Amino acid sequence: MSNLSLPNKPVDWFRNTITLAIAVAVIWSLIGLEIKWERLIDLPGDLYVIGTLMFGEMNIEDFPDLVGAMWESISIAWVGTLIAALFAIPLSFLAAENLVGRPLAWLIRQVFNLLRAIPEVILAVALIPIFGLTPLTGVLAIGIGSIGTLGKLFYEVIEAIKKEPLEAADAVGANKLVRFRWGVVPQVMPEMASFVLYRFEVNIRASAVMGLIGAGGIGNDVAQALRFNDWSVAGMGMLIVIFGTITVDAISGAARKQIIRGSSAKSLTPVEVQA
Amino acid sequence: MQASELKIPKKPGLRGSVMFSISFAFVLTIVTMITVEFSLLEIIENFTRPNMVVDGLLSPDLTQIFSERSRSAFLETLQLAILGTVSGGGLSLLMAFWATDFGNPIGWLRVVVRNFNNVIRSIPDLLWALLFVTAVGVGILPGLLALFFFSMAVVTKLTSDTLDGIDQGPIEAARASGSGQLSMLRMAVLPQILPSYASFLLYGFELNLRASAVLGLVGAGGIGSRIEFFRGRLEWSEVWGLVLMFFLVVFLVERLSVTIRRRLV
Which of A32, A94, A99, B48 has its CA 20 to 30 A from that of B156? Predict the structure, then answer.
């Protein structure tokens, strides 16, 4: 027994390198950032005070205005998403390698990538001098900002279609348009509709945020209230954002389930996380 | 063949529920368009009018990369994203464990943790930043706090979804061999989720990097404060130069992250 020895644990170089790199990065960041850590000690107390100010006594008179502002945020998100879909649908067909040639698909994809990289808030910042502090700024920022994501989701759907309906269309001598109408469209419609709704849910959060820099919607009210220490309005505004978002999520999620259930589509939510 | 007797069946019409959804979406579109005062004419007019934003976009000032202050603002953004992700993402592993039944035997605590996660996740990053700017004042700290909560919420959600789908066999085996709670999690659960968890962390880092660019717009540090500075002075060439540089950084980080994630999963 005593002669037996455990084999050495294998060394995982990949893991060790990554761990070391993270450790170095963290230390570098800690040294580089001049953070007033002592402020953290007061933070729980400050948050408690702000919390009681915000949620302690809310004024019911503010309620209708804030709900109206939330409705504006939802409207911004909906119209913006539709505008994005209007552009993304035709473009995504041109970005699908199984429908058009590689060079064109590549080109359109780069456009999507570029649009995807711009945060909506930055777009809003750029649009404010052109359109002013109006909801239209928010609509366009969301519209332009969502083309990239929607387009990417769409062309992935298009590339995953089955070949058989297309072959069937070819076999009966269908022309290009008919082939597209009956071979492609029915296969991609349900998932596309579901992704539009999904993006709408994402965009409600974005539009709520864009108001913070003045692009319309409830964010406007919350930002103003916080700036002028109008705590109860800010508190109620935040609660309305949270409940409004959750409510719309629930309705839209139910609609997506309905759409997907009646079709052969595979996924309910786009898997953006997977590399 | 008596073709004349053959009847083509009637085309099936749209189902009632589909008709309802389509008309609902139509009405919703009209009402929301009125709410936001949508006007195609105004859009075309405003875009075709000469304006300095577009002028700036056409001649971005790329020399910003040599500016000492812009460079340090970039480093600040990068460092904020690193610290925010490591702290928030680290805590999210605990939070995700506490939200599952094998990680947390106390039923009511599980419900509390789950609901806490849901509330945190419904608050957007910029609102977090504004809240903390109000609480601790303008600076880097509110930005870090915002990224911390933001990435914690996202990574917790993704990790607990993964935890719901793991193989229960190793857990039973660990329990049967008399392992304690901690060693059960360490030996039976962690190895199963580690690759996806690491990939979620990287994803959180990408999100944080993007978010940290806009935090500065509300006074929470990073490259956003620099963008806000030039915007305030209406120097749009500089603004676009910074935005372009930011894209470059995000693009490089994303490439790296995707490469590492491929190896992990």
Answer: A32
Asked whether residue B85 falls in the same domain as residue B165, the answer is: yes
Counting the structural domains of chain B, the total is: 2
Positive/negative CA dihedral, B1, B4, B10, B11: positive
Min Cα–Cα distance to chain A from B215, Å = 10
Contacts 24+ apart (CB under 8 A), A93-100: A93/A155, A93/A158, A93/A184, A95/A151, A95/A154, A95/A155, A96/A155, A96/A158, A96/A159, A97/A159, A98/A158, A98/A159, A98/A161, A99/A158, A99/A184
| A201 CA: distance to closest CA in chain B (Å) | 11
Interchain proximity B140–A78, CB inside 8 Å: no
What ipTM is given for this predicted complex? 0.74
Query: Which pLDDT score, from 0 to 100, does residue B222 have?
Result: 83
Q: Quick one: B65 and B180 in the same domain?
A: yes
* Interchain pair B135, A46: CB under 8 A: yes
Contact B207, B182 (CB under 8 A): no
Strand intervals (E) in B143-243: none
Rounded CA separation B221/B229 (Å):
11
Helix or strand (DSSP H, E) at A17: helix A13-32
Q: Could you report the per-residue pLDDT of A225-247, keeping only the tens digit for each?
A: 988 888 889 889 988 988 898 89
pLDDT digits (tens, 9 = 90+) for A165-185: 888 988 998 888 888 888 888
If asked whether residues B99 and B23 sit together in one domain, one would say no
Binary contact (A135, B53; C-beta < 8 A): no
- Looking at the fold, whether B21 and B137 belong to one and the same domain comes out as no
Looking at the predicted structure, is the pLDDT value of residue B170 above 70? yes
Query: What gap in Å lies between CA A10 and CA A14, rounded to an integer?
Result: 12
* B72 located within any domain: yes
Instruction: Inform me whether the C-beta atom of residue A23 falls under 8 Å from chain B C-beta atoms.
Output: no
Task: Tell me which of 1.10.3720.10, 3.30.70.20, 1.20.1440.20, 1.10.10.60 is the CATH number of domain A59-261.
Answer: 1.10.3720.10
Mutation target among A213, A246, A247 for the B interface, most CBs of B within 10 A: A213
